[in-house]
Every structure is written in C-alpha cells, then in structure tokens.
## 1
Amino acid sequence: MKPFNREKFLLYMLAGIFIWQAAVFTFGVIGCFQNGGKEACPDLGDRYENTVNVMVATTLALLGAGAVAGVTQQKKPSVSDPASPLPLPPQVRGKVRGKVQESVQALEQAQRPDKES
C-alpha cells in the first residue's frame, strides 16, 4: 500500500470545494430566479462568498501548514538511501576522531621544515 500523500489529498479537496461551490451557486441562482429573483434571495451572494472564503481558507491553511511541517522536519537517515550517511555509534565516533587527529598531526609534522638540517 502506498503511503498517504497529504498534499495531494488537500489539493483534491480544494478542487472538490470549487466544483461543489459552482454547483451550489448554480442551483441557488436558478432557484432564486424561479421564485422571484433578488427579492426571494437578497443575501445569496453574501452567503455564498462567506461559505467559499471559509472553505478555501481552511484548505489553504492546511496546505501551508503541511509545507511548513515538511520543511522543518529533519529527514531521518535510512539504510536504503545511500545518499544519507547513517549516524555512527559513540564507540566508533571516538575511534574515528582519534584517527583523524593522528592524521592531522602527522600531516602537520610532514609539512614543517626540518630545523636540524
């Protein structure tokens, strides 16, 4: 089973909201014009606008929060991902540091001019 793609789901929700609001507005306008026009439904536009604004703002806020969460979360290294190095255990870390320091000291000694010659 594929992992859940939150951003894709929210984009589909946003598309669904736009389709739903177009359908509701169309049926609302048709119903109002059949029953007397603007006198029958004086606040149709305001109600439609408020509903749409809340739905779109909620969906976009969820999308934005998902993007921010994705940026701030640090990717954990994986065995299957050769590009990301795995963390070394503490015992190995100390040995590696010691070897690096020895190598640096040897390099520094090799680069120094010999004073006795």
Note: The longest helix spans residues 6-34.
## 2
Amino acid sequence: MFADAEQKIVDRLTAKVPAGVYVGTLRELEKVPEMRQKAPACWVIYDGFGVGEVIPPGTVQRINMQWYVVVAAKSAKGNGQTSTARDEASALCTTVLQALLGFHLGEGRYLRLSDAPGPEYDGGYCHVPLAFSNPATFKGQP
C-alpha cells in the first residue's frame, strides 16, 4: 500500500537534493541506529493514514496517507553551534519542498504539505520534520 509511494519519494529526493545528502527510510534507521547521526540527510517516514470519504455501499474508501521527511543537518563549525546546523537544514528544507510539493505519485495521487511539528536541536544537530499527505482510493471486492 505505501511501499511504492515511499520508493517514489526516495527516488525523487535522491535526484533533487545536492550530492552528499543521504536519502533513506525509517526502515534503515531501525536496522542501524547509528545512522541517526548521519547528516546531512533526508529521512522518509510513512506515518499511517487518516480515513477519508466512503462511497456507499462502503466498497470504495478514500484515505489520506501521511508522510514525514525529516531533514537532518549538523554543524561542523563553531563547536557544533545549532545556528549553523539550522542554516544548513533551512537550505535543504527549501530543496525538499521544491522537489515534493505537488509531486505526482501516480494514479492521481499528488503530495500536499501538511502541518508539522517544529525543529529539534541536540548536540550540534538540527532535525526538521516536513509533513506531507496524499490521497489514495481503495475498492473492496465483496
């Protein structure tokens, strides 16, 4: 249900972000926890779905799939100042937004920006979550 869309997002980002920026998935992070320290990076995370419109008699259902792209940056200057990491993350966020806003996942599914939490700073790292959603329609076979 989501693996195809996830791969399309990863491929799009890989093609659009600058060389040297790692693009990965939550699955990779779970296998190798040390990768949380990898920066600059863009992590694609499927975050479930919300239920949308149901078409009677209930065999057609629309959902809204939720995605995060977490942009990670770190400061190599000034003993890990978060402002340097923030500036690098900001530039990378702009690239990610330009790459994914309105990106067509196929079958009439386009990525849209969603509300997201603010950035987190820790030990010279900056992590900025960007949230996206896309509609998808499923038809049951009663």
Note: The chain has a mean pLDDT of 91.
